[in-house]
Write a structure and sequence with these properties.
The chain is an alpha+beta fold. About 35% of the residues lie in helices and about 25% in strands. The protein has 11 helices and 13 strands. The strands form 2 sheets. It has a 7-stranded mixed beta sheet with strand order 8-10-7-11-9-12-13, with helices on both faces. Helix 2 runs parallel beside helix 7 and helix 4 packs across helix 9.
Length: about 325
């Protein structure tokens, strides 16, 4: 298999499909596009999500916190606790581990999330530091939003701009090479995207407003997340390519490396579906969160398509495969 997420057909067949024990207390279960689980406790539910960081270098500690907290926020829930597992290769120095944990703790502190446990180990099983985080949130069980709630006629909203996380990772990890292509201010701006990786504010706001579904955009980029929302909700989706915001520096970096910004890992961006899309956009922008309507949820028979009037094209949106970032890692 290729680097990146397991293909969805294989995931369904030999991972999710192997689950054979089901508890009545579990009210949100694994599925394509569904990043959280929820366990009922009377009128409340514990919402949980777990994720590893494998493709980032300099900002791994920050990203490890954000990716799991973002999943919780995609359920409209505020994250409150984080468990952190750190696997270090033989030869890792105390300074390297300390710097990593400083990133983790600083980022969690800014989100008001407590580090509540985890595991730390040096092992020959890895050749670089691997981080895995599990986040926990608490909510009324009838207020949790899943990725499967989109309805035909809903607006599809994108927060911030496509390729946000990928831009920050590439600018940080390939800084020397890019310094010959981008000027100093462009490179610094691209690296600064790491400061906008959280979707906790928009997730909580959209949940209160009445979003029907939310999905933070990780591996597979904007188009991968759009496909997963439609798959989880058993609907079609039409995305207007011309409406998707992409920062000029993201375009330049993607052009340089020959990668597609719409298929590039994009933590910090969220796809939200909502009946009153314009109202939600106004609320988000009032709270200084950039938001754009980029499409519509359609009937399942309408398919999952990407439309561009500028290019005069109508293309199918394919299931997410290996993220564009892995082309650089190779």
């Amino acid at each position: 298999m290729k680097s990146g997420k397991i293909p969805n057909d294989i995931l369904n067949k030999i991972v999710i499909g192997k689950i054979n024990t089901f508890r009545k207390e579990v009210i949100m279960r694994p599925g394509i596009g569904e990043d959280c689980a929820a366990i009922e406790f009377d009128k409340y539910a514990a919402v949980m999500s777990t994720d590893p960081i494998t493709a980032a270098g300099k900002n791994a500690g920050r990203l490890a916190v954000h990716i799991s907290c973002n999943d919780i926020a995609s359920s409209g829930v505020e994250p409150l606790g984080l468990m952190v597992t750190v696997l270090c290769p033989v030869g890792t120095t105390e300074i390297e581990l300390e710097q990593l944990m400083e990133q983790v703790c600083e980022t969690a502190g800014k989100l008001n999330v407590e580090i509540i446990g985890g595991h730390t180990e040096v092992t020959p099983a890895v050749n670089k530091i691997i981080l895995s985080t599990t986040c926990v949130g608490k909510a009324y069980k009838d207020k949790i939003i899943s990725s499967s709630g989109a309805k035909p006629g809903d607006s599809v909203i994108l927060t911030k701009s496509a390729g946000l996380e990928g831009t920050a990772i590439i600018a940080g990890d390939f800084e020397d090479e890019l310094s010959r292509y981008l000027d100093k201010s462009e490179l610094q701006y691209a690296k600064s995207f790491i400061d906008y990786i959280s979707v906790v504010p928009e997730g909580v706001l959209a949940g209160r407003f009445g979003a029907t579904s939310m999905h933070d955009i990780t591996e597979g980029g904007v188009l991968g997340a759009a496909w997963e929302i439609a798959e989880a909700s058993c609907t079609g989706i039409t995305i207007n390519k011309d409406s998707i915001p992409i920062e000029p520096v993201t375009r330049r970096i993607c052009d340089y490396f020959g990668i597609n910004p719409l298929r590039l890992i994009s933590s910090g961006c969220m796809i939200i579906t909502c009946k009153d899309g314009e109202g939600l956009v106004k609320l988000l922008e009032k709270n200084k969160i950039k938001a754009t309507i980029i499409g519509t949820i359609t009937d399942k028979n309408a398919g999952r398509i990407l439309v561009s009037k500028q290019e005069g094209t109508v293309k199918d949106i394919d299931a997410p495969g290996s993220d564009e970032l892995y082309k650089l890692i190779k």
